[in-house]
Amino acid sequence: MKLISKRLYFDYNATAPLAESVENYLRNGAFVYGNPASIYTEGREARKQISATFDYLKNLFQVPDEGHEILFHSGATEAINSLVKGMAMYASSQGQKFHFFYSAADHSSVVKQALHLPLLGHEAHVISVDSNGSIDPEVVIQKIKQQKGLKLFNFTQVNNETGVVWPLELAVKIKHATDCFVHVDAVQAPGKMATWNRPTYELDSYTFSAHKFGAMKGVGFTILSQALPWIPLHMGGGQQKGLRPGTENTQGIYSIKLALEELTGIFNPDVLKARRDDLETAIEKILGGAGQVAAKRAPQRNLNTINITLNRDIKVELLIASLDLAGLAVSSGPACSMGVPVASRVLLEMGLSERLAKNSVRISLGPKTSADDISRAKEIFQHVLSKTLG
Ligand SMILES: Cc1ncc(COP(=O)(O)O)c(C=O)c1O
Q: Given ligand 1 and candidates 187, 207, 302, 345, which is best to mutate, with the most ligand atoms within 8 Å of its CB?
């Protein structure tokens, strides 16, 4: 236990440690077990926790009183699948074609919709990113204007691998210039950029995933405009107005409120940025010419992510294992296949070489990362990187 508590966890983009308030709730909470749809006391107690979370989110994200829903679900993968295929079903029901626009740098839960949509008689259109991981809104607008039918554009506010931020104004510009609905993948925003809780309701929907900000896994929420035309993918009971039926995950949903209350209390964008910059500068110094920070020159980056790419013939999985042994948890940027990293799709799209895209290490800090954590991480990187790079 002591050893574990000394470890440095720098993989907040994969998942965040449980917020203290959530841990306490899970250990000591007066657990409600009633079905939130039941009208007797136990059911009403469960409903109270869901309603408290709903009210909290409505206030935190300044959701307008009219015209919007807040839907709880099992996380962003479900939400994105439901929305995209739900809009495709709606288009089919109207004898229309559905066109889904997404970026090559989006999360795989978005990108892989391109595999399903043609099976349903609809189309997906990929938009490229430049070497900074940015999109050109004029190119997107032209691409969208070329198609006729029902259209949705997925806009990833913060990239999970590189931390590149796309300002919401870009999405608003695209929305105003076209007849496209816009979904914002805001999964990587909470606690990682200063304006994470200030969405604009000129856009149609925002999806969040609870485990990325200290709440439980397998739960998330989407703020959705009622104007968005879709047919809910799931059929079932009448929960959540039938928009996402199924008995609600009461504890998971309540953990969202607890974790966000804690996050808003401790999140300090200036401190997080200073810690990130401190570590980044130290790593760049250790690397010298042996590596670089991906998307370093992006017009906007979030505050917690450093993605380093190494231009040496190394085995990145061994580097991650050495850092792990030294007590530091970081991620290989790209996904692994059978434990072996493959070249990052996102970095390849940004024009990096196969070698750089494969030899990538993603370091992502959290709101509680302390100055002492950064000093210790610097020592570990100095020791492990200089041995790896020889
Ligand atoms: C940008 C982004 N979108 C979507 C997802 C999927 O989220 P979930 O784990 O809730 O399915 C992730 C998770 O890594 C992500 O980083």
A: 187
